[in-house]
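@channel sequence for tomorrow's demo:
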Amino acid sequence: MSLFNDVAGYWFEGAVRTLDAIGRGFGSQISADPPPVTPYKVVYETGKVSLRHYRARNRIHATPIVMVYALIKRPFVMDLQPGKSVVESLLKQGFDVYLTDWIPPTKEDAWRGFDAYVNQDLANAVRAVQLEENVDRVHVVGYCFGALLSLLYTALHPENVRNLVTLAIPFDMGARDLSFYNLMDRVDDSSVELITKIYGNCPAWMVNMCFTAMSPIHHALGKYVGMYRNAERDGYAEMFELFERWMSSDVALAGQIFREMTGDIFKRNLLVKGEFKVGGRTVDLKNVTCPLLNVVADLDDVVHPKSSLPLPEKVGSVDRRNLTFPTGHIGAVVSAGAINKLWPEVGGWLADRDRPESDN
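structure tokens (generated this afternoon):
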């Protein structure tokens, strides 16, 4: 397929999606978040990040968690429903949680790359937590694209991170076990430049199309079969509606970070090769010396496990390990198994490595 046909196809798909949303009456609601499940307070906002503070009723751990969410969808999936909430699980374990709520970029934000998101927004958010909590270091927990941002931040600012947890991180793009990864090989730099020239950023509908392309079976048939099989379970219909709402909550990706992610990370795998630069500085993963827990979803159909598993061997940490769990990419944050088993294990790992600032 020619570049022209590719771009035309992308545009047509986006137009159809938009018209369909308007026709169904969702044009003004599609990006709206549901009411929050767990109360929070916005304690800081700068650049393109708003920082939420979830306070534990019975806090027992000295070090707060900064949870770094992905840039491409809304963060309410981390606190989707009572009993199916990562935030709720960590609060019950006695941690205060700060969650990044990324503000969608406008055309004026097309210049924003990893440097802006990591060295400015995330760095400022962590600094705000340090001041709020009067601590020198924080636990950093990142999910998917947020895990990649967390890794880069920890490598560039290691003095601020006590422990790092990466979940479903797209790390080694040399793995080609998912068809989407092979598809990315066909997207040359000129295609990316054309997209950003037309739109400024990578549009939200294109983000949705790429996300869907990563796991087409899950998005097309699996969810409706699951709805049919589980319709009689208490709360399942509400859960399904919330999940669908999240699936439609795509956010545009700033033009520059779209270029860097597509060309430097996906196509050229520069981070794994030790050649990736953020703000003119080469990212040296050996600078990550804090304890690392790399959580890998065995059934992940968005970020293949082979893409995540090599991470511990690339960092400088002595205390480092992979934790595999039998779930999919989204199941890692919403399934009953993950909430009941995985996240207590993650919380326990952090608790074992939590030290009061006076012990430093």
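heads up for whoever presents: The first strand starts at residue 41 and ends at 46.
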